[in-house]
Amino acid sequence: MKTNDKTAPVSQQPDQNAISLDLMNRMKMHGMAEAFRESLAGTTAQAMTPDSFLSMLLSREWDYRAQAAVTRLTKNASFRYKAYLEEIDYTVSRGLDRNQMERLATLDFIRNGQNLFITGSAGTGKSFLACALGHEACKRGIRTLYANAAKLLGLLKVAKVKNCLEAELKKIERCQLLILDDLFLVQLDARERPILLDIIEDRHERKSIIITSQYPSSSWYDMVGDPTVADAILDRIVHSAHSIELTGESMRKLKAKKA
């Protein structure tokens, strides 16, 4: 009968260090194992007290797990762009306030369950800013999900037909930050309205949404399409929301001209 790494007896290797490395790896303490392996190849361990050496091993394991968690959160977020706050271009005149971005970069708005609207014409950098904030959230251990709004609502409509909508909404609800990109490109249809309302109701005053849209928030009422649902949606997302309104020429066009 096979035994797995968690139940197999300790290896009877004559080398005590080899036994320690084997146990570290079997317990998935890979950061600690790597640090211990490095110490065996040098003289670091001999120069340290036992408690300092143990502290170093634990710190390396903590750093390894923290980085693995960031990598996992970033992968699961499914960002459209590899965008980072350090890469934001403030030299182009497009109505972007550096001070406001620095305040948003603290992510206090997420911790407070507030929303952020980023509006502006195509190419002004809405999605890039949203993804940059999303990447920063992942670095801080905040579970994030990026989605093109039209594609997400389309998938959820299919899920409703298959009677698995509730399960899909639960997956979205588990994320502390939801990025809905390019919302209201077209008016919502009768099946999309209640789904969007469900998403927003689940997150109201508890979890955050970043919405990017080519239309200003003052036009969203008409884009919802139904006055009653529009009232319910906007009442839950507009109050206490932060907003960035981008102006100017497309960043893609400007880059193409420079090239």
Integer-rounded radius of gyration: 24 Å
CATH class (first level) name of the largest domain: Alpha Beta
N-to-C series of helices and strands: HHHHHEHEHHEHEHHEH
Biggest sheet strand line-up: 2-3-4-1-5
The geometry reads as elongated
**How many domains in all?**
2
Number of strands: 5
As for the CATH topology of the largest domain, it is: Rossmann fold
CATH superfamily of the largest domain: P-loop containing nucleotide triphosphate hydrolases
Structural class of the helices, strands and pairings? alpha/beta
Which stretches are poorly predicted, pLDDT < 50 over at least 5 residues? none
Q: What percent strand?
A: 5-15%
Distance between the termini: 65 Å
Helix proportion of residues, in percent?
Answer: 40-55%
* Major sheet details: 5 strands, parallel
Task: Tell me, rounded to a whole number, the average pLDDT.
Answer: 89
Give me the number of helical elements. Answer: 12
CATH architecture of the largest domain: 3-Layer(aba) Sandwich
